[in-house]
Each structure stands twice: as structure tokens, then as C-alpha cells.
């Protein structure tokens, strides 16, 4: 039996991010601090008023859009906005809807009327459909969806009314902080190395073999709810997916933003290490630094 | 212990500090990756870990939600190896339950709960080494963990314990700030005060140990209040350093996105 090396490290040898002098960041506010304002300001997220003054309630950077002043914290739970692409897990099947966990402060809701029926029919949902709900999505299933509406208490209402959304079958889920995902036009990426990635705005990243996403689009007649669990994923694809997962975790560890270019560069920079070496913290910092360097060169050109 | 005085004739305490000196505070935010927010705080030899989960949906017990604000749940636990004799019950005994209740009340008044209706925020505290002022260190660590999780607070919640050294040789009794284990157990009152320093308001005041005469309350409370304000300065510096570091890394990586 082959014994692999066990890696044990001392906590005092842990690598921390390099120290940065505070003078470089000017607009930093901490809870309870007064924010200097002009007349007629409007207060946004992360602030509260105490009498006449505007005070910060989180630790973060001040963002000002004309008269709207808000403080954006470093990390927080996902705050949904209409049009965001999210990846979520079904936690409950209720009467006419499913409850989805999307790393937000309240569970999101997927109404029965917001999913495509199999066969692509357009009709009113009957009580027969309610009974068949469990056949479509059960507790524990992963789906990709888009935010349709935000309720008053902050809960999100999702829909999967397009062919690219639906149940996700074989792949790997990576959870990062929502603030690390950059808002882009397209969140479904097919990478040149044979894997496809869905960057959910809520911080859930789904990595699957590229054939998985294509198959979903082909099965348009089924409304995106067929899960192909019998198809075997070849070993080369699995290695690519494992390497991608470790690269994403390395970037997230160094608090770098995640988008298609940074993931592709990190993947290329990580080729000099083996997949298991990418789990070591100093290698993670290395990969992140090399990716940063390459992104710098990109803008320098 | 014969001849052990809380305050020697040179004005030094048992560990060599002056009456108005705090112990050295070291802290680190974001020590865990799984909880939403986490912090590690050392106040002298007292070491505390704090983890915050939330705000998230209440799954099991639907009755414990408020329709207009968040429900806060704190759990105080001491590791079995934290005291000089192995602790039998790390949590769930009377004293811990009372501390849980106190922590709940403190953070309900400091967190802006009206922003999170029907949600729940869990705060877990673990004392790894208990060397006096355990409750105060827990409150300070929980504040850092809440800031790390991005939960809006009205202000920092800073807590400090102060005591009164008995009068020696005709001098009036001296209040001392930030007690350690020896000073706690030698007898004498322990006034535990938690404040919102910038808003200048007290959220929690607790007296343990022996009784305190009414005329002595003001100087002791005053000492605790200044101690809390000093602690806030230390915590504020740590928070600014942590946020600046993370922003720096993010700026360097985000620059490539616009290309």
C-alpha cells in the first residue's frame, strides 16, 4: 500500500498577506465613525444616522455616487439584485415552490410557475404538476438560476426560464465570498482546457466538464431538468477540474477577484506544480502572485 | 499567600502594571474560512476565539424568529483546558447560561437588527485560556468577528473589568483596570462594563465578587470606561490594518478586469 506524505505545518509559520501602510487607502471607515458629508446627502447601505450626523456601521470603503453615500464592507452575505446568475441548492419542497439556499440571509424561492415544464409546454400549472414537483427537483439538488425579483424582506425569487439554467449534474462546487465575484455580462464560461465554469454572483462556483454544459443546451426539449449521471467523465477531464478548483481556492485565499481571465491565467501559472501541491498555503500564495503579475502585464500592454 | 498585596507600596500590581495600564492586546481577524466572520483575541494571557454565522435563515425552530428584526444567539464556552483544573462542563452550566443571556442583550443593542427581519445571527465564543476578564475578552473578540462578517453595528462594543484595591496606609482605595486571574480571585469587587465608546453609552454593567460601596462606584466605573475607550483604539487599529491589507490585494487583482 502506498503511503502519501502527510503535511503538517506550524501555525507560527503561516504566511500572511504582506503588510500595507494605511496611508494608501484614504476612504476607509470603521463602525461608529462619522462620515463627513455635504448638504442634502442620501444615506445608502452600511450607514446610519444618529441625529444630524451620518455614521458608518460596517468597516469598509466609502462609495459615493452623486449624493448617495454608502459603505461597502469587505465581505458579507450575498445581497441579490435582479438579473444576477446564482447557483443554489434545494433545501425544501413546499406546496407551489422550492426553497433554495444561495448563501444569502434568507432562503431564495423558486416558484413552480418560474420553471419550464418538460416538453416545453406553456400551460397553467395544475395540481398534477404540484405532485410531480419532487420528480423535478428534490432536496439536495443543485441548480443554476437567475434572480427575477427581490421581495421586501430581502428574499430572492429565482427563475429558470431559459435553456441555459436548470439542474446541474456532474461537477464540483466551490464556495467563495460573494464580493470576490466580478459582475460581468456573461457568467457561463467554456474554458479552453476542456472544462466549463459557472460563476454564480452569490459566491458559488460550479466547475463541470465542457460537454456537461453543451448537453444541457441540447436537451432543450426536456426543459433543462434531465440529469445525466450515467455518463462517465474521463480522467483527464477530472484532473483539469481538480486543478481549476485548487486555482480558484488559491485566488480566493489571496482575496483576488474571480473572472474568466484571472481563472485562465491562474490555471496556466499552476501548471508547474502538481495538483496536490496546490493545496499547500505557500504554493497558493505563489500562484496568486504570479497571476497578479500577469494581469498587471496585461494592462501595461 | 502571605503578604501578597494587590498594590505594592511602589504603586505596582502583582504583574508589574500600574493601576491604569491595560494588558497587551493582540488580535487577528478572519482566522477561519468556514464561518462568515471570525476573530482571535489575546488580552494578556487570556485567549479567546470568536466565530459568527449569519445572518441566515432559521431552519429548525421557526418560532424563534422575529418578523421585524434578527434573532441573536450567543454561546459562551470555556475549553476544558482553559483553567488550572480541568473544567467539567464547558458549556450549559448556570454561569455560562447567564453569560449567554448577557451577551445576547449586549449584542442586541449594538447590532442593527432591524435590517435583517426573520434571520438569525449566531455568535460562538470559546475561551482557550482563562486568565481573568474572560467575559470582557469575549465581548471584544465577538465585536471583531462581527465586523469581519460585515454585519452592521452601531459602534464597537468594548468591554473592560475594573476592581478596587483596598486602602493601604491611609491612602484612598485605588481603582485598577483590566484585572487578571490573581486579582479576581484574591477577593475584591469586579465591575464589568461594556460600552459603545464613540456613542458614549453603556450597554452592560455587572458587579461580581464582593460588594462595592456606593461612594466608590463612580471612580471604578470611570476607570472601566476609560479602559474600554483605550481598548477601542487598539481594536480600531487592527480592523483598519486588516481591511487595508485585503483591499490592497483586491485592487491589484481587479485592475486587470477592465482590460
UniProtKB/TrEMBL annotation, chain A:
Keywords: Exosome, Nucleus, RNA-binding, rRNA processing. Gene3D superfamilies: 2.40.50.100, Nucleic acid-binding proteins. Its main location: nucleus. GO terms for molecular function: RNA binding. It is found in: Nucleus. One of its GO terms (biological process) is TRAMP-dependent tRNA surveillance pathway. PROSITE patterns: S1 (PS50126). Belongs to the RRP4 family. This is S1 motif domain-containing protein.
Amino acid at each position: 500500500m502506498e503511503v502519501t506524505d502527510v503535511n503538517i505545518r506550524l501555525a507560527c509559520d503561516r504566511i500572511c498577506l504582506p503588510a500595507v501602510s494605511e496611508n494608501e487607502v484614504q476612504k476607509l471607515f470603521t463602525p461608529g465613525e462619522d462620515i463627513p458629508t455635504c448638504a442634502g446627502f442620501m444615506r445608502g447601505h452600511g450607514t446610519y444616522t444618529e441625529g444630524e450626523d451620518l455614521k458608518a456601521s460596517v468597516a469598509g470603503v466609502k462609495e459615493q455616487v452623486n449624493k448617495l453615500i454608502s459603505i461597502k464592507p469587505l465581505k458579507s452575505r450575498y445581497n441579490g439584485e435582479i438579473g444576477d446568475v446564482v447557483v443554489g441548492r434545494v433545501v425544501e419542497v413546499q406546496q407551489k415552490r422550492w426553497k433554495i439556499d444561495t448563501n444569502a440571509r434568507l432562503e431564495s424561492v423558486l416558484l413552480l410557475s418560474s420553471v419550464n415544464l418538460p416538453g416545453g409546454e406553456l400551460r397553467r400549472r395544475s395540481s398534477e404538476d404540484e405532485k410531480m414537483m419532487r420528480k423535478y427537483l428534490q432536496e439536495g439538488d443543485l441548480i443554476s438560476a437567475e434572480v427575477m425579483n427581490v421581495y421586501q424582506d430581502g428574499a430572492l425569487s429565482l427563475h429558470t426560464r431559459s435553456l441555459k439554467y436548470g439542474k446541474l449534474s456532474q461537477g464540483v462546487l466551490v464556495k467563495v465570498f460573494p464580493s470576490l465575484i466580478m459582475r460581468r455580462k456573461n457568467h457561463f464560461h467554456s474554458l479552453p482546457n476542456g472544462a466549463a465554469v459557472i460563476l454564480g454572483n452569490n459566491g458559488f462556483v460550479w466547475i463541470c466538464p465542457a460537454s456537461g454544459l453543451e448537453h444541457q443546451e441540447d436537451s432543450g426539449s426536456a426543459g433543462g431538468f434531465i440529469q445525466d449521471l450515467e455518463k462517465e467523465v474521463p480522467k483527464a477531464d477530472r484532473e483539469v477540474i481538480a486543478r481549476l478548483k485548487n486555482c480558484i481556492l488559491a485566488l480566493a485565499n489571496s482575496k483576488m477577484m474571480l473572472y474568466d481571465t484571472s481563472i485562465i491565467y491562474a490555471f496556466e501559472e499552476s501548471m508547474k506544480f502538481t495538483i496536490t501541491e496546490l493545496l499547500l498555503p505557500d504554493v497558493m500564495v505563489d500562484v496568486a502572485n504570479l497571476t497578479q503579475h500577469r494581469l498587471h502585464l496585461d494592462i501595461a500592454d | 499567600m502571605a503578604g501578597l498585596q494587590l498594590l505594592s507600596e511602589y504603586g505596582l500590581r502583582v504583574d508589574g502594571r500600574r493601576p491604569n495600564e491595560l494588558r497587551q492586546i493582540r488580535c487577528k481577524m478572519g482566522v477561519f474560512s468556514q464561518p462568515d466572520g471570525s476573530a482571535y483575541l489575546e488580552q494578556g494571557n487570556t485567549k479567546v476565539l470568536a466565530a459568527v454565522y449569519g445572518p441566515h435563515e432559521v431552519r429548525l425552530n421557526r418560532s424563534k424568529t422575529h418578523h421585524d428584526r434578527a434573532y441573536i444567539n450567543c454561546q459562551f464556552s470555556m475549553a476544558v483546558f482553559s483553567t488550572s483544573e480541568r473544567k467539567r462542563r464547558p458549556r450549559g452550566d448556570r454561569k455560562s447560561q447567564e453569560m449567554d443571556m448577557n451577551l445576547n442583550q449586549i449584542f442586541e443593542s449594538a447590532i442593527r437588527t432591524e435590517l435583517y427581519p426573520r434571520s438569525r445571527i449566531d455568535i460562538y465564543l470559546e475561551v482557550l485560556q482563562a486568565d481573568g476578564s474572560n467575559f470582557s475578552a469575549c465581548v471584544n473578540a465577538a465585536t471583531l468577528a462581527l465586523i469581519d462578517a460585515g454585519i452592521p453595528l452601531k459602534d464597537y462594543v468594548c468591554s473592560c473589568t475594573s476592581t478596587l484595591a483596598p486602602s493601604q496606609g491611609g491612602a484612598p482605595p485605588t481603582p485598577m483596570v483590566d484585572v487578571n486571574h490573581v486579582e479576581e480571585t484574591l477577593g475584591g469587587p469586579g465591575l464589568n462594563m461594556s460600552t459603545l465608546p464613540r456613542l458614549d453609552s453603556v450597554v452592560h454593567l455587572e458587579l461580581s465578587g464582593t460588594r462595592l460601596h456606593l461612594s466608590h462606584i463612580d471612580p471604578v466605573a470611570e476607570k472601566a470606561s476609560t479602559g474600554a475607550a483605550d481598548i477601542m483604539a487598539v481594536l480600531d487599529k487592527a480592523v483598519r490594518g486588516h481591511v487595508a491589507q485585503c483591499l490592497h490585494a483586491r485592487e491589484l487583482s481587479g485592475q486587470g478586469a477592465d482590460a
